[in-house]
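Q: What does the predicted 3D structure of Iron ABC transporter permease look like?
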Amino acid sequence: MVLSLLLGSVNLAASDIVSVLMGNITTGTTYDVIWNLRLPRTLLAALVGVHFALSGLILQSVIRNPLADPGVIGVSSGASLAIVGLLLLSDMINATLLKDSPVELSLSWLPMAAMVGGIVISALVLYLSSQKHQGMKTGISPARLALNGVAIGGILNAIVMWIVVVWGGGRTETTILWLAGSLYGRDFTHLFILLPWTILGLAALYLIRHPLSLLRFDESQALSMGVNVARWRVFSIALAVILAASAIAVAGPVGFIGLVVPHLSRLLVGGDIKHLVSVCLLAGGCLSSGADIISRTLLSPLELPAGALTTVIGIPVLLYLLQKQSGRRP
């Protein structure tokens, strides 16, 4: 966090940060850079990483599949399509019905739209990826999950880009940047939109920590331990979608954090869900913040989308996990 406040197109001294945070500097360029630009962006980057990491952890635990990730199962593409569709609908209404007194769409509606889109598309991907034996579902195929997720995600992303290019108007540039997973231009408004969902998500995760830890086992084992598997599975997946979709609404689909962080966390602390949640909180925030710092400083004053950097990290991990799963087949 300190590095994020220090580094950027203009590097600042640690004493400047302390002075601003202590209230000794309340005006001027230094104050604006730290308080209005870097501080909200730094906090938002950390929260976004937490959301994606916990979402991935929940999905991998419930589906019992190391490839489960908000991007892979379609949450990101579904949420993106829903948000772009809502923005297009808002612009069309303003251009026709409300052209004399247009109304700006409130940013608080974006997480809601993202959740609807994420739930619908992820449900479709999971349904298509389920394996059946003698008419009975036996689980989620890792290969099918990856292929269906990539295929459906590719189709939806193409539709989104078509909408943005053809109908985007003045929103085209900012929307394309958002679709790449960028925190550019984010401020306290975006932070306060995400924060309630963070609190809600963490509270819900705390409440379901026990059944979630049991869902990692075989369904028959979980049932024998008194877990209502169907109910808690649906609730857990819905929570994972809420966490990911709300983050996508403010920062775009920052890819593969939900895949990489839970996997690395298991290597560090094993499979205990209580320990994994703590490590994912820390690692998710650090990875997202680190990607944002690099995106701002690598080609300064130009800026890369943070999502591009997390994708560079995530693709090799995805390929490794796919190869590992393929090697386990008889």
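A (community wiki): The structure tokens above were generated from the sequence. The two ends are 47 Å apart (CA to CA). The chain has one domain: 2-327.
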